[in-house]
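Sequence, please.
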């Protein structure tokens, strides 16, 4: 996994956490769901990159 991919995934996960926290603070369930979705998407991307790394070696 390239460093830039790691940074992008970490940024997307952090964005999701902020969005989820904002949603919880304001009582906006849609924002909470969007934040969780962003976090899940970042986790899936990271897992995909790790699988690619395994097959590269």
């Amino acid at each position: 996994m390239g460093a830039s991919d790691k940074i992008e995934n970490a940024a997307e996960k952090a964005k999701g956490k902020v969005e989820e926290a904002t949603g919880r603070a304001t009582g906006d369930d849609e924002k909470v769901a969007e934040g969780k979705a962003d976090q899940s998407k970042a986790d899936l991307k990271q897992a995909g990159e790790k699988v690619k790394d395994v097959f590269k070696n």
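The two ends are 11 Å apart (CA to CA).
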